[in-house]
Write a structure and sequence with these properties.
Blueprint (H helix, E strand, L loop, with lengths): L10 E7 L5 H18 L4 E6 L6 E2 L5 E2 L13 E5 L11 H12 L3 E5 L2 H7 L7 E3 L5 H7 L4 E3 L3 E4 L2 E4 L4 H14 L1 H10 L16 H5 L4 H12 L7 H7 L4 H12 L3 H19 L4 H7 L5 H12 L3 H6 L22
Parallel strand pairs: 1-2, 1-5, 5-6, 6-10, 7-8
Antiparallel strand pairs: 3-4, 9-10
Helix pairs in contact: 1-5, 1-6, 5-6
Amino acid sequence: MVAAPEFNEPHHIAFILVPNYSLIAFASALEPLRLANLISERELYTWSCHSPDGKAVKASNGLATQPDGTLDDIRNTELAVVCAGINVERQEHPSALLSRLRYLATHGTRIGAICTGTYVLAKARLLNGCRCTIHWESLRGFREEFPDIDVTSELFEIDHRRVTSAGGTAPLDMMLHYVASQNGMSLASSIADMMMHHQIRAGDDPQRPNLRVRLGISHPKLVAAIALMEADIETPLSCSALAAAVDLSSRQLERLFAKHLATTPMRYYLRLRLIQARRLLTQTSLSVLRIGLGCGFASASHFSKCYREQFNKTPSQERAGQACPSSAPAAAAATPSPTAGI
């Protein structure tokens, strides 16, 4: 590997757009650079967008971005950031993309990823020996696919020559720290103020709010029971075991779920497990049987039956990307939402 070159102002960042990339994550990474220039009244940063063939790339919301060039046009770049989003695991990433990332890495360019772009870096074998992060929704599937990579659930990770961030607005915090490291915290704070971002979060901040905030409920024993469910997907606890763990009777626990979530503990738990299975079906190449067993189902037939009842399609149909028939049953509003995408 050649020594990392010295980069002077303006610092150049190249964004590599993958189909269905997250526009909010991309904008959250780009806008701090623009505002750094505006506030400082200096050209501290320049940037460019790239795709493998130089053609327009659609974001997950359907908007298309016309890049400035192909991957071969990435030169003299301090940081190259892969921007991805939904269905990154199902895409066939061009060998030209993976090889170009490896070339840039061996020639001194720092390599980064936002949202699910971490998956592309893993495919390019650029995360060995490095800590990284990815959007929380893809975390378990990523761990199953790449068991030897040290992936965390933190907001962003800066490790060696790799920079990775979760999705949503997490890239904003990562780039504010990037700006602060080069131009001071005062400028980064001014950028955050301009973007009405009240607090610059640290890299080790959690991606998700706590259960109390996410669910909009405050009953401590109900929150504790749901936390146990989330922690025990592979080996589901019985209703009586859940109740005992939070010092309630089974009947008391059932009343809490009925009052606050309009469902039963076991129905809530089942849907939680099925949603996890859905993520693994769409994000990994694990067998249907292994996914079923990993989500607490005793057999493939039991898994398929429950999955069809919930989503009106079999696990195999889900993996094949077949649409649900119009007769799909409506899910209870109080149960967890299905995989929402990024």
